[in-house]
Amino acid sequence: MAGTGSAAAGDASAQERLRRWRMVLGGEEDGTGCALAGRDAGMDAALSALYGRNGRDGRNGRGGRDGRDGERSAGLGGSAPHVARWLGDIRTYFPSPVVQVMQRDAIERLGLASLLLEPEMLEAVEPDVHLVGTLLSLHKAMPETTRETARAVVRKVVGQLEARLASRTRATLAGALDRSARTSRPRHADIDWNRTIRANLKNYLPEHGTVVPERLIGYGRAARSVRKEVVLCVDQSGSMAASVVHASVFGAVLASMRAIATRLVVFDTAVVDLTDQLEDPVDVLFGTQLGGGTDINRALAYCQSRITRPADTVVVLISDLYEGGIRDGMLARVAAMKASGTEFVALLALSDEGAPAYDREHAAALAALGVPAFACTPDLFPEVMAAALEKRPLPIP
Fold first, then answer.
1. What is the tens place of the pLDDT at every residue in 39-53?
2. Residues 6 or more apart from 138 whose CB is under 8 A from it?
């Protein structure tokens, strides 16, 4: 009996392995001899439609990126109802992060961007930062009937980002602003213990293992007037879509802080100042135009002309540094701002996706000026800004 039970368990394990291989390989002639049914068949059909032979960019097969032909051949075609059903299916079978990846692949591989101009399609998709980037690149071509739906999708994503990032950003930067002022009669909650201990080391009592604080040093309360100025200078070329989305959210958060005067500038070969729209990051995003060339020198010239208090200003350049303008001019402007006392931060990206392709020569030239260029996640950005406001080393990942 024990042997029979063991054999049955072994058969079940082997069948499960075949099922998994069948899901990985796809196609009826995959060599496993395993037929799919129920939920497995539905998942397989959804994957087939996207990663089968009808993928029109040549990256076929389940992996989809090695150029080999796969066995799948369903395809999504150009039918909006068919695509809407497929979008519903993948949301049924897969978790949200996987759905977002599949939607992105469908837009890139199968040319479905034009279908996003239809309100019914927008209502069916799972909103995420990448979808927002696609919508922003299309919004000039959108029919009037689609624009409100597109704004609702963008507003949902922006709301999610604000809920995730706003409170922490305000708390972190408020602390940095408070620490820029000192007082010798602080409240207990405002005592700067590190500086207080250093100032009272002469009063160390070894028998008690403690320092008697003869003089207290504390953080000052932040003034109600503007104390720092921040300029966000954002590259709006097509590769920077996710960074533009996050920068608009942070711009709105910073603008809501009374002690910080915030300016948001976006650029390609032209420069657009969106500061007057910072109250609503959705308006900011629809004021951008993703794509086009890049003239960093022109954008920095504009930002430099708007700086009134260099020693109290932080300029954040968010760009992959592929300069289409005057390279030496760009570097000279950075050097001039640094020399005037302005803090300068260069971010290759402001997103969760790591460093993009970027101009390594320009990054090295900035580093030689004392401006390291690095990719920054949205979660790290408050710490980077706090360090810049306090003029201390940046927390480079």
1. 888 888 888 877 775
2. 113, 116, 117
